[in-house]
Amino acid sequence: SRPILLSRAPAPLRAVQPAAAAMVSKAGAGADLRKFMEKRLDLKLTANRHVVGVLRGYDQFMNIVLDNTVEIVSPTEKNEIGMVVIRGNSIMMWECLDRVK
Fold it and tell me: Which residues form the Sm domain (predicted)?
């Protein structure tokens, strides 16, 4: 007969942190993008996509929220797509287009 596998007890639930507290940089907690908030970012994404927008939020997985986003399809074709959430693992490269203090 096969042995019965017992699972561990589920981890206790943690209190939900306010958004501002969740963005505080901790060792190993992901990128600290605070200095880029409200700045224009140029992102190269997987699937050969390219967008430019204003950083409004992010999380520890580098999922980001961009506002006033424009998708650059070609040098002559651009699509305004507004506010978007971009999954962190689809970001290949990014550049800040505004001056950072």
Answer: 28-100
